[in-house]
């Protein structure tokens, strides 16, 4: 009986390779990489490795920490009427980490006071055991908004001994109109639910999305993802005024706090940056104000050994008002340089950090007077406006944007140093004008379609019908002859009003969502006709939508046509000797237009 062949263990890689060598010498011994090394590489991410364990370790301004604590602590204790805290800011400013760390600590204190320390330790699991975070659903059979609604319903009971802070960082597809409306309904229902609720925090990274064409008729969520466009102006304004909503705004992390945190990481990791490149390399990273991007770039360059300051890895985006301030007042960062160099570097920072130059030009037109309290010659203001006009005339040329910005800075530099108190900046009134124009166009189109004559031009309806028809319909004589209506007839398209600039963003969420105006009789009649046409279309079948074809002769058609034509000619030739409405020229005009 031949001896049994010794089996090679499956986990012995050396013996396995020897067996392969016995079969053929052409094979090369290859060892599979162990999965542990992959896990180690993931765990070595500096973002996770140096993530703060408590609120005091977070790289953030202490005043912002105090501001957030003053709002969040009474919300958790239930002594504040506020039910929703909206925290906004740019990416990497530490807002979400601060919310989780601070919220976890404050909830633990409340539980410890009510349950005791021993019971509290039993329920502590995970990094943030007192935080309930929403994650967007990936289930195919469950819609995103339904999953979010069910999440809020389940979170209602995280009170008392089961208290937790509800944090929402991920959102459903709010760029879809119906989903956005459902999301707002969920938030609105949460704000006005009866009984006790846990504190809810919305953490939002505000961004400005650059469109392909650069033109936009609305300041909406499709091009600006902010708290106003997400929740809506009405919900934000009413919620803040009633006290059920509060907002905390974060700014990019200041360079001073960034230096303290990054220097500790460099010392622990022993990152060897050449002295001649250290200042320039780190300065380019500090400018972003994004601690998360800074750690990622620093880790990448520390491993590759390439400390190139030109590779920033992240664009340094600045806000609209920040860009206007750099152009109008120049940047304080370059104040130590001569005037020409300071202006040049300030303009370059704007060109590199801001991309919506059309809006920037409008903002400069609105805010150039804040420099030195407008204490300079009118000719300077005229030169500023001419420079902005020339830039618009040149169109989309890249040089035109730079010309306008540099000319504005040059003219204001010649005025001299700014004197007096700095005035607040105002948002351009351009979007308010677009909002009003869209409202007029929408109402005029509805009037022409359902009440007036669609063949009349938009200009005539807007200027003639828009003014004269409401005046006639609201007159005493017309009401006496035709009866009164529940509402008055307002001007078609609304009244002409002045548009003023202010510091608030004129949000119009989408072209499908419009601001509710004063209800008038025109709107009631249009709604009634729109509803009636929909009901008629819904009640018709396919057979009703098509007319039956009758077998008729040409003689019958000719006779019918001739009879109808004769009737019309007779009616046109008949004249009344006495016109009952001749004493009212306004009604005569309506009759001549076929309105009565």
UniProtKB/TrEMBL annotation:
Keyword S-adenosyl-L-methionine: no
Biased composition (Acidic residues): 10-21, 554-564
Presence of the UniProt keyword Protease in the record: no
Pfam families cross-referenced by the UniProt entry: Rad17 (PF03215), RAD24_helical (PF25812)
Localization of this protein: Nucleus
An individual GO BP term: DNA damage checkpoint signaling
GO molecular function, one term: chromatin binding
Keywords per UniProt: ATP-binding, Cell cycle, DNA damage, Nucleotide-binding, Nucleus
Domain Checkpoint protein RAD24-like helical bundle: 315-436
Entry's Gene Ontology cellular component terms: nucleus
Region described as Disordered: spans on this chain: 1-21, 531-596
Taxonomy, superkingdom: Eukaryota
Compositionally skewed regions (Basic and acidic residues) per UniProt: 565-578
Stated family: Belongs to the rad17/RAD24 family.
PANTHER family to which the protein is assigned, alphabetical: CELL CYCLE CHECKPOINT PROTEIN RAD17
Name this polypeptide is given: CIC11C00000004310
Organism whose genome encodes this protein: Sungouiella intermedia
Taxonomic classification: Eukaryota, Fungi, Dikarya, Ascomycota, Saccharomycotina
């Amino acid at each position: 009986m031949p001896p049994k062949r010794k089996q090679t263990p499956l986990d012995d890689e050396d013996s396995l390779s020897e067996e392969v060598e016995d079969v053929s010498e052409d094979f090369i011994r290859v060892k599979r990489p162990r999965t542990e090394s992959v896990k180690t590489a993931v765990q070595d991410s500096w973002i996770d490795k140096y993530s703060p364990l408590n609120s005091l370790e977070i790289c953030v301004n202490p005043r912002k920490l105090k501001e957030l604590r003053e709002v969040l602590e009474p919300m958790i204790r239930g002594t504040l009427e506020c039910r929703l805290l909206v925290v906004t800011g740019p990416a990497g400013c530490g807002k979400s980490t601060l919310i989780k760390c601070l919220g976890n600590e404050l909830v633990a204190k409340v539980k410890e006071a009510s349950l005791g320390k021993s019971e509290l330790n039993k329920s502590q699991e995970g990094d943030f055991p007192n935080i309930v975070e929403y994650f967007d659903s990936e289930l195919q059979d469950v819609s995103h908004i339904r999953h979010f609604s069910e999440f809020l319903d389940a979170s209602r009971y995280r009170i008392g001994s089961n208290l937790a802070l509800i944090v929402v960082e991920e959102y459903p597809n709010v760029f879809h109109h119906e989903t956005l409306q459902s999301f707002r309904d969920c938030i609105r229902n949460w704000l006005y639910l009866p009984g006790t609720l846990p504190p809810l925090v919305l953490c939002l990274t505000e961004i400005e999305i650059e469109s392909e064409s650069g033109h936009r008729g609305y300041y909406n969520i499709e091009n600006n993802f902010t708290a106003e466009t997400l929740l809506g102006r009405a919900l934000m304004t009413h919620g803040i005024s009633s006290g059920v909503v509060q907002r905390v705004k974060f700014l990019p992390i200041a360079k001073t706090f960034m230096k303290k945190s990054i220097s500790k990481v460099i010392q622990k990791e022993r990152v060897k940056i050449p002295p001649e490149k250290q200042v320039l390399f780190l300065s380019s990273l500090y400018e972003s104000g994004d601690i998360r991007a800074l750690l990622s770039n620093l880790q990448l360059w520390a491993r590759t050994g390439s400390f190139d300051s030109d590779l920033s890895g992240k664009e340094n985006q600045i806000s609209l008002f920040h860009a206007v301030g750099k152009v109008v007042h120049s940047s304080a960062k370059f104040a130590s340089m001569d005037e020409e160099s300071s202006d040049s570097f300030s303009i370059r920072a704007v060109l590199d950090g801001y991309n919506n130059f059309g809006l920037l030009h409008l903002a400069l037109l609105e805010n150039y007077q804040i420099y030195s309290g407008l204490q300079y010659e009118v000719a300077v203001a005229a030169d500023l406006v001419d420079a902005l006009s020339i830039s618009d005339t040149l169109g989309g040329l890249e040089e035109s944007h730079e010309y306008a910005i540099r000319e504005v800075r040059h003219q204001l530099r010649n005025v001299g140093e700014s004197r007096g108190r700095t005035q607040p900046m105002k948002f351009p009134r351009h979007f308010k004008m677009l909002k009003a124009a869209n409202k007029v166009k929408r109402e005029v189109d509805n009037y022409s379609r359902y009440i007036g004559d669609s063949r009349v031009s938009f200009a005539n309806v807007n200027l003639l019908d828009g003014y004269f028809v409401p005046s006639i319909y609201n007159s005493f004589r017309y009401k006496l002859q035709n009866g009164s209506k529940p509402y008055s007839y307002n001007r078609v398209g609304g009244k002409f009003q002045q548009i003023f600039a202010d510091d608030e963003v004129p949000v119009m969420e989408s072209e499908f969502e419009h601001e509710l105006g004063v209800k008038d009789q025109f709107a009631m009649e249009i709604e009634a006709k729109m509803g009636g046409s929909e009901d008629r279309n819904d009640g018709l079948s396919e057979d009703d939508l098509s007319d039956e074809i009758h077998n008729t002769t040409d003689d019958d058609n000719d006779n019918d046509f001739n009879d109808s034509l004769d009737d019309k000619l007779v009616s046109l030739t008949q004249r009344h000797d006495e016109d009952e409405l001749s004493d009212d020229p306004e009604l005569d005009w309506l009759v001549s237009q076929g309105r009565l």
